[in-house]
Amino acid sequence: MDRYDVAVVGLGALGSATAYHAALKGAKVIGFEQFELGNISLQGLAAHGFKFAPAIGRVAAELAIDGKSSDDVSKFGIPRQAGASKL
Q: What is the pTM of this model?
């Protein structure tokens, strides 16, 4: 049986942020959502981030349609935080 440090119920904006930050701290996180998973959510596009919207939108569309991007996005996401401290 798998064990988790944090269970997040509801993976909307706040639940996703909670899961993300717990994972950054090194927690093993599981999330539960009543709606269909697999949707792509773009976060952190406030203020100066809007200038990146066209590129981010293109990458998100490629990921949603093809499951891969023509750009190298391997440096983005939780795995790059593998050395983060524990909760």
A: 0.45
